[in-house]
Amino acid sequence: MNEQQLHAKPPYAMIAVLFFGAFVAFLNNTLLNVALPVIMTEFQVNPAQVQWLTTGYMLMNGILIPASAFFIQRFTNRNLFLTAMTLFTIGTLTAALAPSFIVLVIARMIQASGSAMMMPLLMNVMLVAFPVEKRGTAMGYLGLVMITAPAIGPTLSGWIVQHYSWRVLFWMVLPFAVLVILIAFFRLKNIMETRDVKLDVLSIILSSLGFGGLLYGFSMAGDKGWMDPQVYVTIIVGAVALTAFIRRQLSMPVPMLEFRIYKHPMFTLSTIILVVLSIAMFSGMLLTPIYVQNVREISPFHSGLLMLPGAVIMGIMSPITGRLFDKYGPRTLAISGLLITTVTTFMLSRLEMDSGYFYIMAVYTVRMFGMSMVNMPIMTNGLNQLPMQMNPHGTAMNNTLQQVSGAIGSAFLMTVMNKRTETEAASLAGESAGLPDAEAAAVKAQIAQEALLHGINFAYFVCTVIVFIALILTFFVKRVVPPKEKAEAMKAAGGDPVKAGKSGTHTPQHE
Fold it and tell me: Which residues does the annotated region (Disordered) include (predicted)?
């Protein structure tokens, strides 16, 4: 099927299958978080060990997502999707039957090896299947899957773990994964061109050490502290390997991951804004449950429930903002969204010991609403500036940096929170001096909660400053046309750039 046929009649049935598979895989990303304490008890492991269920998953994503540009160019979208879903299904079954903790960790990494391919593959299919004037809407529906599934995970798993075994989390996902494979086997077609690109083994090794080292080091920093050798050694190794990886890619005629895409200014600007947004979103998903559970002493299930409306709103808004992007461009949406995000993040930096449950829910939900106006429009606009053959590299780069920035940002803000908590606890400690033991214990507990509240508020204030920087950057965003569409418009206008802006496409070069 050629490009004109695709644009005239996009393969909606095939895309629905891809969406279904991606939803199942993305739901699994956060499904296990609430179950970690139960798994610790069953397998008798400590917090540092059980963290490998999420760290191992993240590491596998960090290793494979940068290589996704190679896989997408080298293999057909049908074979790649079936392989990814098969690996995910094998991992899910292994996890459900896991007799030991180490088997469960390996199963999670097998799952991740499949799900890591989903988002880059889906994005590239959408960019190929839809013309530029409809990409915003299409990517908006993709955003619905990408955002809603992981956000629903904690609430759903909280309810399941409260009533059933943690293994039900995997048994529940398994039949849907098998169903996706069966449907995809009969319904999936190849719509993307393949190229005979060669796999550079050294690039894979450097990429794995680079992105994997940074992800691991920063994700462990919040727990172990920055001065732990396990943290700073892996970060240094990751930084050195990543530098070598970038230098190698720039010297290769056909690189595994094309860093020259950053010569396109709107793609570069969109990447910076998306990195900031990832830091804000991941940190919010981390700091809010800590406040709700540890300061307000609300149950994990109700903590997950508090975050659910935000996920639903973000999912509903994603297709709507996609349509608005197609009509009005990215700048107005991004400025409005980041203004809302900045204000609501600042409001979360002013929480009290007795802030109401529904107040927190409302502020968090409005914050997610603001983010929904930024994410897909800015991403789509940046990708629109790349030539079609660069799309696999653009999507791989965006997904990798969102993973890395989310881990780095969360670790940084967790460190900010911990340091401020320690400082406040030390300054308040004098209040319990000289009191009877019974009273002193109660005062110390109160001081610990107040110190934690100060730490959370300060971390949210730092996050507010970071988001405000992204807000300033959005004023420099311009609407762009993919090079191919722009060339066709110029040709139709007889080489007149003024006429070209009014013909050949509904998308002007600048807002």
Answer: 489-511
As a whole number of angstroms, the distance between CA 456 and CA 294 comes to 11
Give the separation between CA 395 and CA 274, rounded to whole angstroms: 12
What is the tens place of the pLDDT at every residue in 122-180?
Answer: 878 877 777 766 767 777 777 777 766 766 777 777 778 778 888 998 998 899 999 98
Cα–Cα dist 369/373, whole Å: 7
Spell out the alpha helix ranges (H) of 167-264.
168-187, 201-224, 229-251
Residue 444 clears pLDDT 90, i.e. is over it:
no
User: What CATH number does the domain containing 321 carry?
Assistant: 1.20.1250.20
For residues 217 and 79, state if they share a domain. Answer: no
CA–CA distance, 461 with 440 (Å, rounded to integer): 31
- Which amino acid type is present at position 510? H
**Integer Cα distance of 285 and 300 in angstroms:** 13
Asked whether 248 and 202 are in contact (CB, 8 A), the reply is yes
Asked if residue 114 lies in contact with residue 91, where contact means CB atoms within 8 angstroms, the answer is: yes
Distance CA 214, CA 216 (A): 6
Quote the CA–CA distance of 420 and 364 in Å, as a whole number: 22
- Is residue 157 within 8 A of residue 34, CB to CB? The reply is yes
Where do runs of H (alpha helix) occur along 373-390?
Answer: 375-384
| pLDDT, average across residues 222-239 | 84
Q: How far apart are CA 88 and CA 81, in angstroms?
A: 10
Does the pTM of the predicted model rise above 0.70?
yes
Tokens of 231: 């943290």
* Total number of domains in the chain: 3
Average pLDDT, the chain: 81
Which amino acid, residue 244? A
How many angstroms separate the CA atoms of 238 and 220, rounded? 14
Task: Please name the residue ranges forming H helices in 291-390.
Answer: 300-328, 330-348, 357-372, 375-384
- pLDDT tens digits, one per residue of 238-260: 999 999 999 998 888 888 888 88
Q: Is residue 265 part of a domain?
A: no
Q: From CA 308, how far away is CA 285, in angstroms rounded?
A: 11
Taking each helix axis from N to C end, the angle separating 135-163 and 300-328, rounded to the nearest 10 degrees, works out to 170
As a whole number of angstroms, the distance between CA 126 and CA 135 comes to 7
Are 320 and 306 contained in the same domain? yes
Same domain (yes/no): 44, 61: yes
Total length of the chain: 511
Task: Give the HSE-up count for residue 200: Cα atoms under 13 Å, Cβ half-sphere.
Answer: 17
- How far apart, in Å, do the first and last CA atoms of the chain sit? 33
**Contact present, 378 and 330 (Cβ < 8 Å):** yes
Do residues 89 and 178 make contact, with C-beta atoms less than 8 angstroms apart? yes
Query: Are residue 206 and residue 193 in the same domain, yes or no?
Result: no
